[in-house]
UniProtKB/TrEMBL annotation:
UniProt name for this protein: SDR family oxidoreductase
Annotated metabolic or biological route of this protein: Bacterial outer membrane biogenesis; LPS O-antigen biosynthesis
Boundaries of every NAD-dependent epimerase/dehydratase domain copy: 3-240
Record CDD domains: UDP_AE_SDR_e (cd05256)
Pfam families: Epimerase (PF01370)
Family: Belongs to the NAD(P)-dependent epimerase/dehydratase family.
InterPro entries: Epimerase_deHydtase, NAD(P)-bd_dom_sf
Superkingdom as given in the UniProt entry: Bacteria
Length: 328
């Protein structure tokens, strides 16, 4: 197949690009490089089936020609992180909602065979049920989660109304090599690895008993491939590890001193995907255990040498908008 991957130079996108190339697909790797890095694709730069395109999904006119002759679209481009979405909601809407509309319209015009959208488990908000099934209410707590949910609504609506062969994957707490090492305060794995390298205490939110469904990036990439190869359209599936693990366990895995910072409003005490549907429908299951994934992260810890060092004071400053707007 000829596959267009949006956000291909990003964390998940680069791993998915590599998997598609290994499976002998041609890949058009599209990214605006606003957050992704070309070096994430360096391992594949000599692959005969790879072509990189720098383009912005907000610009439909420049986006449209790159869909010509494409069989599959893997739509991963988008804005992430909570605090920037609170501070810049218009930018998040432009990219995550309008950008997704542009991708859908380009895919529709060029008659693509499959489209798979990267949705976010954060759209569940604080669920009532664990493990959380796809039937759980969508209750986003902040603009990032809202715009990802709106993007998914567009994808599923286009599948229903225009018969676009599209589906959505709701990703839970993805981690692994090439996860972001710069920019806004974000994923706990990267924060902890940078702190461990610099020999400062690991900043634990609350008491650390909260659990997360940490899902390794190669398992996520394989879920996208399984979704593209399936004949299923108009549905959403959870992608998770099949378990959930406390932040304290993660700290034990990484090692180092600890310090504690205030619990944040709008954050669930647990994220835990019910993956029964994707296992049954796509014959997909995660392959990398938390212990295996943690060991891999420790092996590439040096990648976080130049990452921002988040101290309690810097975190308090960076998350002020979070408390100001969500703590009411």
């Amino acid at each position: 197949m000829k596959v267009l991957v949006t956000g291909a130079a990003g964390f998940i996108g680069s791993h998915l690009t590599g998997l598609l190339l290994q499976q002998c697909h041609e890949v058009v790797a599209l990214d605006d490089l606003s957050s992704g890095k070309l070096q994430n694709l360096a391992a594949y730069q000599h692959a005969p089936g790879l072509r990189f395109v720098q383009a912005d999904i907000r610009d439909r006119a420049s986006l449209m020609p790159h869909f010509a002759g494409i069989d599959w679209v893997m739509h991963l481009a988008g804005r992430s992180d909570i605090v920037p979405s609170i501070e810049q909601p218009d930018d998040y809407f432009d990219v995550n909602v309008t950008g997704t509309l542009n991708v859908l319209q380009a895919a529709r015009e060029h008659g693509i065979k499959r489209l798979v959208y990267a949705a976010s488990s954060s759209s569940y908000g604080i669920p009532d049920v664990y493990p959380t099934p796809e039937t759980a209410p969508i209750r986003p707590e902040y603009p990032y989660a809202l715009t990802k949910a709106m993007g998914e609504e567009l994808v599923l609506h286009w599948a229903k109304v225009y018969q676009l062969p599209a589906m959505s994957l709701r990703l839970f707490n993805v981690y692994g090599p090439r996860s972001r090492t710069s920019g806004a305060y974000g994923a706990v794995f990267g924060v902890f690895l940078a702190q461990r390298l610099k020999g400062v205490p690991l900043t634990i939110v609350g008491d650390g008993s909260q659990t997360r469904d940490f899902t390794f990036v190669t398992d996520v990439a394989s879920a996208f491939l399984a979704a593209a190869e399936s004949g299923i359209c108009g549905e959403a599936f959870n992608v998770g590890s099949g378990n959930h693990y406390s932040v304290n366990l993660l700290v034990d895995l990484i090692g180092g001193e600890r310090c504690y910072i205030p619990k944040r409003p709008g954050e669930p005490d647990c994220t835990f995907a019910d993956t029964a549907r994707i296992r049954a429908a796509l014959d997909w299951a995660p392959q990398v255990s938390f212990e295996q994934g943690g060991a891999i992260m420790k092996q590439c810890m040096e990648d976080w040498n130049d990452a921002p060092l988040w101290t309690p004071e810097r975190i308090a400053d960076a998350t002020r908008a979070w408390f100001d707007h969500l703590g009411q």
